[in-house]
Amino acid sequence: MNYSAAPDLLNNNVILVTGAGNGIGASVAKSYARHGASVILLDKNVPALEQVYDDITVDGVAVTPAIYPLDLKGAAVSDYRDLAENIHKNFGRLDGLVHCAATLGQLAPVQHQDPKIWLETVHINLAAPYLLTHACLPLMQKYEHASIIFTTDNHKDKAYWSGYGISKAGIESFSKQLADELECDGRVRVNCIDPGTVQTELHTRAFPAIDPTPLPKPDDVVAVYLYLMGKDSLKINGELISAQ
Length: 244
What we know:
Blueprint: E1 14-18, H1 23-34, E2 38-43, H2 46-58, E3 66-69, H3 77-91, E4 96-98, H4 115-140, E5 146-151, H5 162-182, E6 188-194, H6 201-206, H7 222-229, E7 240-242
Parallel strand pairs: 1-2, 1-4, 2-3, 4-5, 5-6, 6-7
Helix pairs in contact: 1-2, 3-4, 4-5
């Protein structure tokens, strides 16, 4: 996407980014911080979060990011409620929620899939985004122009993609459902991004024999995440947008 964001696009915004420890989530978080946002970094990998935190602060941004470690696989409903309450207590508001966290799980024919892994994959990729959104939505509805962004994948309906594919199809449906429900209120817009094929750990796991060097890097797809989070996209709701 060809989009140039104003340097102060996200000034005074508080934005929660999941999967912020690496890949697209890390790039999105860094970009939001450079454009003025107070970014809350969520991931289960604490050292990776600390590295992203250091990268942001080294950039000399005006607002220091926050780290919130959480393992989505084992998180209970109360954990998401506590997270929303902590955001309200420490920041007083939440202007954006970006779902980048994902797990690949197992790629296999249906009859050879491990049901436990399938359930864990669907939980992390679909149930967890639902629970987090459910917990944060009341806080986001207190202010105008909030934005929720989901991340999908074009492999959702292909053979062997197991729980990963099913969960991404579910994410697209949930994103559209939520966008339709919130359209009349007008305070929170909801959209979904397909970043395409990108150099990430997840892609390397899915295609270990493919050289990832020619592929776009996570930084190359952040423009659409900036666009859908900022004021230039206030009329965009319920859309599935490709980053490439």
